[in-house]
Every structure is written in structure tokens, then in C-alpha cells.
Amino acid sequence: MITCAISQSNYLPWKGYFHLIGSVDVFIFYDTADFTKRDWRSRNKIMTPHGLHWMTIPVGSNKGKSIQEVALPNGEWRRNHLETIRRNYSKCPYIGDVMELLAPVYEDESIVNLSKFNQELIMRIAKYLDIETTFRNASEFNILGDRVGKLIAMCDSIGADVYLSGPAAKDYITTEFDDIPTKLKWMDYGPYEEYKQRTEPFSHHVSIVDTIAILGKATKEHIFG
Question: What is the phi/psi pair of residue 173, to 5°?
């Protein structure tokens, strides 16, 4: 039995994103989906001594482009983001692990588009967490159809028996999976235990960078139980 999930690549996603990845056999990066500005594709939150802080890649609006077509900007944002993470988590026990995971991607200027940048970070973190899921890209498939039809077509292309979807898709998935071989299941995130963050009140909705900096390899047990 093959279980599949499909999602756009997010910037340094929260732990639930990796929970979804680790719950399936094949994870398809939806790199052909339209880029949406001011969304998780180009930004995420970390915890600082002063509370939550957004880190945003300044890619602009990129109206009408897919995420694979969004170019990374020039400038100091790569160095600034790395330094922001290093500075805010410098006293955490596993900041060394975080920097070893992230720095090679930020410092690789041959990575020039957002999709590739996000994917490299996600795959390195998944490997650190010993997640053995196979990664694919939507651009590998010649898919047509409406919003849900494309999801079904990708599932068909890899022979998926089950499509595991995040709950946000309940806004647009209705009965399309009812009478087809691929069965729809909904992802149930958590509940996750709290750990000692740098600042109160505690928030689960931060980048996994926060979790790894504090828990290290135990992040896997924190996510999957």
C-alpha cells in the first residue's frame, strides 16, 4: 500500500509539516502550484527573547508565477536569516545541529529559485529526523484538470492507494475521492507536548528550527511519539 501527500514547499516549516512527510511513503512537492505572497512559501516564525519573530525571504509578489518560477533575490537576506537564527538560539543545546543543517543551503548560491531552496532545507531536516519518505516533484508529471483533479492525477501517477491531506484542504475537497481507487484520509496533527521555549507563552506554530535547537534528535520522538 502506498500513501501519498502533496504540498507546496514551505520555508523552514513547522513540525506538523514533517509529521505529514513522515506519515507517508511518497511526498510530492507541488512546485507547479501558483505562488502566493505573504504565505508560508517565503516566510515563517521563530521564537526570540521578545516573542515571535517573522523571517521573510524578500521575493516580492511574483503574480502569475508558480513557486518553481520564483527567483531568489540578491542581497544580504541569506546571511541575515542565518545570523538571526544563530543569535536567537545561541544558548540552546542543539544550535550546532541547526547551523550544520541550514548553513550549507544558505551558502550555496547555485540555488537560485525558491522551490529548490525550500526543498533542500526540508530534505536535509527530514534526513536529520531519520524520515525515509521518497520525495517527488509535481513538475515530473504531465498533469491536467481542476484543483482536486490534479491531486488525483498525481496520486494515480505513482499508484497511491491513500492520499493523506492536511485539514486546510477541507475548504475545497468535497466528494471527489468517494468513487475512485485512491482513498482520502485527513491528517491529524498532534497533540504535541510543550517543551521549554525561550519565551512564554509557548507556541507550537513556529519553525521546526525552534524544536531542533532545543530538543535535537529527540525532535523525532516529540513529533511522532
Answer: -90, 125
